[in-house]
Amino acid sequence: MRISDHFSFRASGELSPRERQVTTLVARGMTNREVAASLGISRNTLKNQLRSVFEKLGVRNRLELVWCAISRGLVLSPEQMQNPPARKRTRSSGTGNKS
To answer: 37-72 as b/e, with b when 16 or more CB fall inside 10 Å?
Structure first.
C-alpha cells in the first residue's frame, strides 16, 4: 500500500493559501507556538486553522498531516528540500548570435 492510498481528500479538500502555509510550517517541525509567532497569529487561531486542515484532509493529528501533505505533494519531503530537482537549461534568446 502506498502512503497516498491511506489518505483521501474530502469534498472540501482544497486548502487555502494560509492553510498551506500552516501545513508547510508544521511539516518543517515547528511547534504551534513557533508557527503562530511566525504567522503573527494567536495559538487559538492556529489551532482552529489546524482543525480545518485536519478535517479537509481527513487526518487526525500532526504526524498524519505531514505524511498526507508529503504524499499529496502539498509540501516537499525532507529529501526533496535538500535535493531540489535540477532546473532545465534554456538557451538565451539571441545574445550570442553567430554570423
So the answer is: eeeeeeeeebeebbebbbebbebeebeebbbbbbbb
What separation, in Å, do the N-terminal and C-terminal C-alpha atoms of the chain show?
Answer: 59
Domain regions of the chain by residue span: 3-7+15-74
How far is residue 87's CA from residue 65's CA, in Å, rounded to a whole number? 29
Q: Distance between CA 46 and CA 48 in Å, rounded? A: 5
Q: What is the mean pLDDT of residues 36-45?
A: 98
Residue with cell 501545513: 23
pTM score, whole prediction: 0.68
% helix, strand, coil for the chain, step of 5: 55, 0, 45
CATH number of 3-7+15-74: 1.10.10.10
Beta-carbon contacts of 19 under 8 Å, excluding residues fewer than 6 positions away, are 49, 52, 53, 56
